[in-house]
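Working notes for the structural subgroup meeting. M.R. asked for a predicted model of this chain before we commit to crystallization trials. I am recording the input and output together here so anyone reviewing the notebook later can reproduce the run.

Input as submitted:
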Amino acid sequence: MAASLLIGIVITLTAAWGALALWLRAPLPPVGRAALTLAWLASALAAIAAFAWPAWQPAWYVFALAAVALLVWWHTLRPSNDRDWIPEVARQTHGEIDGNRVTLHNVRNFDWRSRTDFTPRWETRHYALDELQSVDVALSYWNRPAIAHALVSFGFGHDRHVVFSVEIRRKQGDRFSEIGGFFKQYELSVIASTEEDSLRVRTNVRGEDGYLYRIYMPLDAARSLFLAYVNSANRLRHTPRFYHTLTANCTTIVFQMARRIVPGLPLDFRQLASGYLPEYLYDLQVLRGADNAGQYRRLGRYTERARANATPATFSRDIRHGLPGIDAQ
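Returned structure, recorded in token form:
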């Protein structure tokens, strides 16, 4: 009885996973995907029914063969850098490291007027590691308090900042889906951009809510983190990878940062529930200038400051007005 129950659970879980994989990724029109998914579920139900009706036992073998075929097909799905990408991820950031000098190619600096009206600009920019002065974490919320997009901004003085963001590399016609992120629906991209692009577009164009936190970390760790993002971008340019909702997403950036601050740091649920990163950063004691996590949130919220800014040249300075920890490093 226990063995039958265990097999039944395995079949049920396999059926659920396979149904989602077929519905989301089968290379068929919607009607074909629906028919294939229903056929898959019917074979699973028949296999479960065989526990009650022994005459149906051949259904076990049918389902087993279908599962093997599904796994073989699944492993044929490979990430690619050659697809019809949406404009904001059409190019890939990559860098050249020459001692103290880093040259970044394809730094995004779009002029956004609306979601669909923008002037694309991809630039080559140069940075000196010994001029790196600050590291800030930006969080952008849309409609759920537990989930935010995390970005890391490196400051090189004179309001020169470059932002690294782990992005879904979407194709034309794609819509974002957390479920799709489990099923090889999107590729992964590491994009470097200006703050006037990646921070402003989220608050001023997409209507998201933005927060900024100055991170206290040794400058040698900050330089190591910067180079890690450059190397990650370079690897993705040569070896594409699928985005994954849990294991390869924007919180990867924060975990890489935290490991450089506290070596051997264990996993924490707030690295996945990115909306709670302020409390996580506060517990790591990497924030300075306020008394508690709530005060950091209140002072770090830059949404209105971003929307009030009318001059791109002063955007970075304006959103940092009153930000705790600016003078702490």
